[in-house]
Amino acid sequence: MKKLIKKILREQVENDSMRRIRIVLNSMKSHKGWEEFLQQVKSYKKDPPGMWELRESLFSILKLVGGSQDNVQSDRFEKTYWFATVFMGNGGYDRNFKEGEIKLIELPTYDMEANYTEEVYEFRTGWGTIVGVDTDEEAIELFQNNPEDYIEDSETGDSDYGDIYDVEDVIIQNTGIIKFLPHWVGLR
Q1: What does the pLDDT read at residue 3?
Q2: How many CB atoms sit inside 10 A of residue 52's CB?
Q3: Residue % of the chain over a pLDDT of 90
Q4: Do 72 and 6 belong to one domain?
Q5: Confidence of residue 139 (pLDDT cuts 50, 70, 90)
């Protein structure tokens, strides 16, 4: 009996999820830019910069069907990427999402790791004492031409990073899947 109840509840969640997904996809038609968002993802191969208005429009739609707001940027990107891909992959702006089958896809993710060398330029202030000179100009010239001989103490004021090179030992640390989660549309 418990298995039957669990099965019925699971089917109800699936039906409610699909109904809410249809509402979200139909509402997405009134916001232009989903193709461009996916092109940016394809170009950058990660969460692209900008397009905040488009992302916020999706979260307003999700909120209308009971979805919660996520403050974690990666979660927000995953939802936006998944819904944009499902929207465009199932007919996009020309589709009536109230009818027909909707393919719910899974999108792969790859968490990467690598060792690399990167140039770092540190802007430092150094202090030291010079003795045995007769003029200010001579002290300045000695300190400027051979600071490593005279600096006794220093501190870093700022750093600037240069090019990355010698990338080695690249591995996939973890693979994952972005797939629909019922809480995106307010279901548990």
Answers
A1: 72
A2: 8
A3: 75
A4: yes
A5: very high
Q: Which amino acid is at 3?
A: K
Q: Are residues 22 and 98 in the same domain?
A: yes
CA distance 76 to 142: 57
Residue 25 bridge partners (DSSP)? none
Looking at the structure, do residues 102 and 119 belong to the same domain, yes or no? no
159: domain range?
114-170
| DSSP-assigned states of every residue in 102-122 | -----EEEEEEEEEEEEEEEE
Burial class (CB in 10 A: 0-12, 13-18, 19+), 22: middle
Is the predicted pLDDT of residue 170 greater than 70, yes or no?
yes
- How confident is the model at residue 9, as a pLDDT? 62
Q: Are residues 22 and 97 in the same domain?
A: yes
